[in-house]
């Protein structure tokens, strides 16, 4: 299969954003930086793209200009093993101007949307008992950050 690389459009914050994401995700690194030249359309020597990896997954950050911005129509889902991981990603991504949303969704300080999802939620929502799964869904809907203990309590399990 051909590799897929998300390209994230920023106005001028591509390098700052990439550096921020490297502090949030383990095993991450910048792999290349390119710059605008004399041909433009932005000032020569301004960062054009930052190629980087987040925990081994490739991304490109582009300083494309103010014409486009992020929306909740596209988000990145973080599969979290436990509550400590949920808490860590939630705190890091909402820091310095990030915004909490509903049901485990948030926007980071650059406006990029993330879903911080514990694996346990998927287990509970796919429970063979439809009543249990519905109680979990009802408990999840008003939450901002997902709390595994509260989801399990709604399901009647621990």
TrEMBL record:
Q: Name one Pfam family in it.
A: 3-dmu-9_3-mt
Q: Looking at the keywords, is NADP present? A: no
Signal peptide start-end: none
Single GO term (MF)? methyltransferase activity
GO annotation, biological process = methylation
Q: Gene3D superfamilies, from UniProt?
A: 2,3-Dihydroxybiphenyl 1,2-Dioxygenase, domain 1
**Limits of the PhnB-like domain:** 4-117
Q: Which InterPro entries match?
A: 3_dmu_93_MTrfase, Glyas_Bleomycin-R_OHBP_Dase, PhnB-like
What SUPFAM superfamilies does this protein map onto? Glyoxalase/Bleomycin resistance protein/Dihydroxybiphenyl dioxygenase
User: What UniProt keywords apply to this chain's record, in alphabetical order?
Assistant: Methyltransferase, Transferase, Ubiquinone
Q: What is this protein called?
A: 3-demethylubiquinone-9 3-methyltransferase
What organism, scientifically named, is this protein from? Kocuria rosea subsp. polaris
């Amino acid at each position: 299969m051909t590799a897929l690389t998300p390209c994230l459009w920023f106005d001028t914050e591509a390098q700052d954003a990439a550096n921020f994401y490297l502090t949030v995700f383990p095993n991450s690194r910048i792999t290349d930086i390119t710059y605008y030249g004399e041909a433009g359309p932005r000032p020569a020597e301004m960062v054009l793209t930052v190629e980087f990896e987040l925990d081994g997954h490739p991304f490109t950050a582009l300083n494309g200009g103010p014409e486009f911005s992020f929306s909740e129509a596209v988000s990145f889902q973080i599969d979290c093993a436990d509550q400590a991981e949920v808490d860590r990603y939630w705190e890091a991504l909402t820091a310095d101007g990030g915004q909490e949303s509903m049901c485990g969704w948030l926007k980071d300080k650059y406006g990029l949307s993330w879903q911080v999802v514990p694996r346990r939620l998927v287990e509970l929502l796919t429970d063979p008992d439809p009543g249990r799964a519905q109680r979990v869904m009802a408990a999840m809907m008003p939450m901002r950050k997902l709390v595994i203990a509260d989801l399990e309590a709604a399901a009647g399990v621990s």
